[in-house]
Amino acid sequence: MNGALEHSDQPDPDAIKMFVGQIPRSWSEKELKELFEPYGAVYQINILRDRSQNPPQSKGCCFVTFYTRKAALEAQNALHNIKTLTGMHHPIQMKPADSEKSNAVEDRKLFIGMVSKKCNENDIRVMFSAFGQIEECRILRGPDGLSRGCAFITFSTRAMAQNAIKAMHQSQTMEGCSSPIVVKFADTQKDKEQRRLQQQLAQQMQQLNSATTWGSLTGLGGLTPQYLALLQQATSSSNLGAFSGIQQMAASSNASAMNSLTSLGTLQGLAGATVGLNNINALAGSMNSMAALNGGLGGAGLTNGTAGTMDALTQAYSGIQQYAAAALPTLYSQSLLQQQGAAGSQKEGPEGANLFIYHLPQEFGDQDILQMFMPFGNVVSAKVFIDKQTNLSKCFGFVSYDNPVSAQAAIQAMNGFQIGMKRLKVQLKRSKNDSKPY
């Protein structure tokens, strides 16, 4: 019987096969049976053996199945991490085998929807009793005590619950119901938590997309760690393009940009005003003019203090631009892509501001790569290379900023960033002069 002790009759349907570790390698099934039988009759013991040795030697662990679930749990309570066998350094380890379900209530509990509001608990029990023993049956009721048209049933085993689903799901339309009866496993705690996180994320995204005033934009400074965690979760599942950029924006730009915004009195007056993209471009023009003026006066001996103020203004503009881009992603990116398309050729930024991005997901287009890299500065162009023969992405592209600082920030944040199974490779585009010897 392959080294196992067996009996002719079968264990209870809800019996659990237990894995037991930290047993002496010298022990046989006989000694193990003597260890386990005080807790209940043993149906089967199977020692795990190393078949490469002759004769096969015990690996110091086994499986044991009692006739009753109660005996298995009592043995676990008495032995697991408590009793140390002769010659062993660690106490016995005993738990349900990986192949076994814990038979927890959530594994056997069904949700029944589209139930006639005239039905009571007894009616539901009668409907489902053919599939096995029902431990609990409950109709959901409102504060007025009236049925809400749905119920929960808990069977003794998961197999019974599965049979009920197969036979009953959408099998009939009950009186007063608009569609057939729904029979499925009830949501577990994990399912509920997952749904709650998704709802939270959807709400936060809605707030981001509807932020059209500076007041709303400055409010983005309050992004919570929990929200960042939600965004991280989102990047690992779906909507990768949209989420990735916002996530990096929140993580990388949030603190510095908002500090600059709130510390500059000249910009605080804008906080409550509604500002469109034209205003942003106007502000950009002013900033660039001021920066040029600063550069022109530099030789005439500007003080460090003045230069520091200009840096702060430039940084503040960068922060405003990034937040506007994040809050109005569709409008902003469509405008840029239209300009890019009208120009015909790829627009490049200054030396050190142009990036190559490798290992892009196949489905990523210009819009996706643009939204992903907008948070780090002012993007002047974003392009994914397309194979002219197949019209499919070659999975690499480039992004150009109007300054090298933004390009370095993007490399730091996005090089090695994982999307699905891929990790992005982000590096500076080599200058045409690099290959020239002189």
What does this structure look like?
With 438 residues, the chain is α+β, with helices and mostly antiparallel strands. The chain contains 14 helices and 15 strands. It has helices at residues 29-36, 69-79, 121-128, 158-168, 189-209, 214-218, 225-235, 240-263, 265-268, 277-298, 304-327, 329-343, 366-373, 404-414; strands at residues 4-5, 17-21, 42-50, 57-66, 93-96, 109-113, 134-141, 147-155, 182-185, 354-358, 379-386, 393-401, 418-419, 422-423, 425-428. A 5-stranded antiparallel β-sheet has the order 1-3-4-2-5. It has a 4-stranded antiparallel β-sheet with strand order 7-8-6-9, covered by helices on one side. β13 and β14 form a beta hairpin. α5 (189-209) crosses α7, α8 runs antiparallel to α11 (304-327) and α8 runs parallel beside α13 (366-373). The N and C termini lie far apart (83 Å). Mean pLDDT is 74; it is low at 212-228, 234-307 and 316-332.
Q: What tags apply to this protein structure?
A:
20% strand; flat; four-stranded antiparallel beta sheet; alpha+beta
Terminal CA distance reads: 83 Å
Describe the oligomeric state of these chains in a short phrase: single chain
Biggest sheet: strand arrangement: 1-3-4-2-5
Query: Strand tally, please?
Result: 15
Contiguous runs where pLDDT drops below 50 for at least 5 residues: 212-228, 234-307, 316-332
The proportion of residues forming helix, as a percent range, comes to 40-55%
Assign an overall shape. flat
Mean pLDDT: 74
Question: What proportion of the residues form beta strands (DSSP E)?
Answer: 15-25%
SSE series: EEHEEHEEHEEHEHHHHHHHHEHEEHEEE
Radius of gyration, whole Å = 33 Å
For the report, how would you describe the main beta sheet?
5 strands, antiparallel
Structural class estimated from helices and strands: alpha+beta
Number of helical regions = 14
